[in-house]
Amino acid sequence: MSTPSGTKAQSVGPLSGGAVKDMLLAARLPIAIVVTLVLFGMVEPRVLSFGNFRNIAIQASYLAIFAMAQTMVILTRGFDLSLGYTVSLVSVAASMAMVAMGSGDASILYGVGAGVLIAALIGLANGLLIAGIGINPLVTTLGMANMVMALASTISGGFPVTGLPRGLTTEFAQGSLLAIPIPIWFAGLVFALLFLTLKATKFGRSLYIIGANPRAAVAAGIRTLPVLVLAYTLCAVLAALGALLLTARTGSGEPNLGGNLTLEAIAAAVVGGVRLSGGEGGVGAALLGALFITVLSNGMNLVQIDGYLQQICLGVIIIVSLIVNRDVTRR
Amino acid sequence: MAPLSVAKPTEQRSSLLDRFLMQGGIVITFLVVAVVATALVEPRFLNRLNLINVMRNFALLLIPSLAQMLVMTAGGFDLSVGAVVAISSVVTAAVMLVGSGYFPGMEIGVILLSLVAAIGVGVLVGLTNAGLVASLSLSPFMVTLAMMSVLMGIALYFTQGIPIYGVADSFITGVGRGQFLGLPIVLHVALVVLVVCIVMQRFTALGRHIYAVGSDLRSARLSGVATGRTLTIAYVLAGILAALTGFLMTSRLGSGQSTIGGTLALETIAAAVIGGVSLRGGVGRAEHVALAALFLAVIANAMNLVQVDSKYQTLVLGAVLIVALAIDRLLLRKRQA
Q: Helices then strands (H, E): number in chain B?
């Protein structure tokens, strides 16, 4: 038999009882971010330049939006494995809509409308299958992921959709407001909205209660069906927002845009401390997790570590943070 | 005799239909409908060469699906199945390439050596997964997802995505294309694995322990089951079966490829859940999973015959998975009502 986990937690407890240690553990992610920056900075000084910080902040905005979206369903003990391919489909479909409407700046609205509508339908379907029929979220969204992936690559023929409106590719990608780049504004806005939703609304509290104990939630009179359907729809619509921003940045509708995003978004949330067994964590954790992963991949890119090695590192980081977070929440 | 945890139709009044559904009736219905429909729409389906092709694909799906089933009945999950297949394919071909340089003329020995190496990789991955899931009690979903990322990274890093050629000819003709008693060798291998799994599930203590651990870890531990060891064995067996799949796929493709196995996690989970394996653990039978794998192989073949674009095939696979589960849930609900 393996060591009973109880004894392990107890042996950690007295050792790290001090208040300082508690604070260090609570601030483990910001510390990890700073340490990572410094370590890479020692190898490659460009890591610590203002320009690179700005870069990291912009890159992290996209991942943070996806991680926060994913958090909304992870809180309910759910998952959205279709998130990445939803991003691909929205990118392609919105681009095609914009091109079809003449690629003028007014066509951006049609693109946004098409993208959000498609994502909302995917989220609605996920939510109804999971909460209405009661199919496991993992399998539902895995099945959905494949359908959405197939749609994304067939409607585009597998090729990027080019000819996007200039307004989209300049303003929403390179533009700034009050010296802060647009993508950061969007990530901040999403964070603020979700933070308030989770803290101050009945919907937000219901998400936590459902995640902590689904049966108790039903007993407490929470109508899980509408709450879960809304959570999955919200997740998909936020994914669409991220997809539109990423499309603006890439400058074309990309059928392969979201391939790795599902893993990265879940990783960011989990690394940040959102519990997969539901009911614990928040969008702040997802934001920090996204920042950490971005800092890490930015550093690895700048010191020119092979992309495949980076993939290995991502996997190792996920496992390490699972272990760390487990010991912290145990205490 | 029967595993204690498997839900048997305990209610005395359970009708014939209920019992049929419990005993894998849904899968059998799916399978029969798929076979009959395909044969009617496309008579070439019944062509001997085509059937052999279906059998080969079935075999190569069945082995990893049984791996998935073992882990899932133990209450776990293995998203790294496809990645193990990819990396063991690379290892098989690499060992064969290097080995044939050292031991010229000893093809069979080199083939066996590469099989041992591939299985070794599978054991190693299984032990790592089990260590993280059982000893550290981490989420199997997250652990195997991370493991998938690591393994794919390793396989792609060493090959840079380029296939490894130089596989022994006798390996391709003997194993990959080989036939015995008119049936593909890979099918014989898969059927042996299936029989071993059925026997293990029905008649051995290990089989009962896997069900017990999967349905309720704590009660299993309290009743004296060595839960850590049982979980470890389940993950290691799954690793071995995935590695075997990689070995066999290499013989079929004629090269070691780091890019195979991409959709295998989905396909094996589909085969397992359509075959009635519960995602909550403790429930699932090898023979039902085999029927589900055959069902998926028939559908895939049917779509190939009527020339459906491979992208739509993914779409259909996703839809089949969801529809099959929805039917299952709705029937269950009706039965409970």
A: 14, 2
Which amino acid is located at B70 in the chain? L
Do residues A319 and B146 lie in contact, with contact meaning Cβ atoms separated by under 8 Å? yes
Q: What is each CA distance from B134 to B139, B212, B244, in whole angstroms?
A: 9, 15, 24
- For B61, B136, B164, B176, B245, the CA distances from B96, given in Å and listed in that order, are 24, 36, 10, 15, 16
CB contact under 8 A, A322 and B315: no
Chain A residue with minimum CA distance to B139: A276
- Do the chains contact at A311 and B330, CB–CB below 8 Å? no
Q: Which long-range contacts (CB under 8 A, 24 or more apart) does A296-299 make?
A: A296/A36, A298/A40, A298/A47, A298/A52, A298/A55, A298/A56, A298/A59, A299/A36, A299/A37, A299/A39, A299/A40, A299/A44, A299/A47
The yes/no answer to whether this complex scores an ipTM above 0.95 is no
Choose the closest CB to B145 out of A1, A149, A263: A263
Percent of chain A predicted with pLDDT > 90: 22
Report strand pairing: A180-181 vs A176-177. Answer: antiparallel
Å between A297 CA and nearest CA of chain B = 14
pTM: 0.84
* pLDDT tens-place string over residues B251-304: 888 888 888 877 788 889 889 988 888 888 888 888 899 999 999 999 888 888
Taking the Cβ of residue A306 and every Cβ of chain B, the question of whether any pair is shorter than 8 Å is answered with: yes
Helix, strand and coil percent figures for chain B, each rounded to 5: 75, 0, 20
